[in-house]
Amino acid sequence: MTFYAAIFYFLSIAILTATGLAITRRQPIHAVLYLIVAFLATAALFFLLGAPLLAAFVVILYAGAIMVLILFVIMLLQRSPRELGLMPQWGHAALLGIVFLAVFIAMLFKDPHSGIVLQGASAQPKDFGRFLFERYWLAVEIVSILLLVALVTIIQVGKGRGTGGDEAEIEINPVR
After folding, report:
1. How far is 69 from 151, CA to CA, in rounded Å?
2. Exposure pattern of 10-48 as b/e (b: 16+ CB <10 Å)?
């Protein structure tokens, strides 16, 4: 086994472990922290595979901006799933997981293109940015609007029902 193969397997196991821990944690803040670890390991894997620009995007966008935003909203809301009416439904989740696993296994064994070797491609960041914003500018704008709508919706849900006024009461608990 080569050094790169060992690093690849280590990062793959780290991604799977961190993602599994993120899914099984009861505390949302712990889940977000494990997800950040998974994103950082994914970025390291992209860098190892020769895509440093993609690795930088994963670190800046996912592990940086989006996860910090989600962590901020979780800390801002501090509401339990019982208050929001979001109790887990393990039966539905297990059924969906089994369906996805069956489709994945079927794709592994039925793929007609599995023996084809693809050639590596590389692009400069300037070329990638030009391609993205000239050809897919509408998709970029739609995604940014969807993220804004999601943030506003989460904040509205977090305000609570029946507070009676526009002014929010702030309670400061001293650290003990």
Report:
1. 9
2. ebeebbeebbebbeeeeebeebbbbbbbbbbbbbbbbbe
Query: pLDDT tens, 35-88?
Result: 888 999 999 998 888 888 888 888 888 878 887 777 777 777 766 555 555 556
**Contacts of 158 by beta carbon, 8 Å cutoff, 6+ apart:** 73, 76, 77, 79
Counting Cα atoms < 13 Å in the Cβ hemisphere of 88 gives 8
Alpha helices, H only, 79-136: 81-84, 90-110, 125-135
Report the candidate in 54, 66, 90, 73 with the shortest Cα–Cα distance to residue 143. 66
81 near 101, Cβ under 8 Å? no
Q: For the residues 14-36, what does the mean pLDDT come to?
A: 87
CA angle 44, 144, 67 (to 5 degrees): 40
Q: How many CB atoms lie within 10 A of CB 51?
A: 18
* pTM over cut 0.70: no
Whose structure tokens read 């809301």?
Answer: 77
